[in-house]
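JOB MANIFEST
job_type = single_chain_structure
chain_count = 1
residues = 361
[input]
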Amino acid sequence: MLPYLFVILLSVVILHLTQKQKQQNLFLGIIGVLPLVILAGFRDYTIGTDTNGYPVAIFEYCRMSKSLGDALFVVAGEVEPLYVVLEFLISRFTNDAHWLLFWSHFIMFFNIVYASKKFELSIDIAIFLYFCAFFNFSLNGARQSIAITFVPLILYYCINAKYIKMGILFICAFLFHSSVLLCLAILALFIYTIKFPNMANKKLIKVLTVFVVVVMLINFNSLLNYVAGLGAVRTEYSDRYGSNDMYGSNLPISNIYLNIVNLAVFYSCRDKKDPLSCFMEYIAIISVILCGSALISTFLVRITHYFVIVILLYNVKLICLRGNFHKNVSLFLYFLYWFIITFINLEDTTPYKSKILLSLF
């Protein structure tokens, strides 16, 4: 646990120092997250439940493939194509899969830094909250973690009506992990709350929205099978997301805690005059409700991540508007989430090991 604490502290300090200037610098932001990228990239393959699974295994396929077409053919139907392209490109320069892990996390952190800069957020707090909420998961679900970090940027370009950039980023995210289709629901919700603010703010409409989400959860397996039948997602997702046969089901206490913290921070800091306030309230509430998806399948609870990343970064803005006491309490609550899931080793992230870094000392 100590290596994680040391590195996040180092990154936050570097980012905080670089923010002393009037305008946040993207390059300095990237320098600030490099310690975290290195920590994740050069970890032992036993760190993270799936690290020894598809990332390393497919890298070996790519390394032995003579062309990108061969690599895509070998793993067709196993993983999304853009992730295979990333693996193949890296395999042309090195035989060491650690560089795949490095560049995967570089993309994740770059997206968060860039989104923070676009939304004019405090990058040090944004990275800290992202670390607390998603870093451990990113050591396991690499493809989905990359897709998740595209969502804030997709939303930014939607808000600013730059639909071509929004579309390009959405396609990129989809080609990393097709579950990002859920982002369409987020975009639709944004358009609805902006176009019809009076209707969206009515309590009855909010209750009906909650009811619709619950009904969709109850019938999620049927909906997923229908979408898979259209070819929008791989059929194997029906087994993973729509049934408890493969992964079982439970009540995700840690996810519920994180989403309640998000909701509490939002309500304690919200500015009702902010045009995004109503939209973010829907996102925060739906995130909590979607925790119930784990009763269908523990794998399905991953769909909450797309909503969590949106309200999480919005809360960065709200936290910075409050006094130090409120800010410190909020940061502690998020840190407590990371501490708990790390302590119980939820994603097989402890004890941290790195053969490469150990060989340097």
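[summary]
The chain has a mean pLDDT of 85.
The chain is about 70% helix and 0% strand.
exit_status = 0
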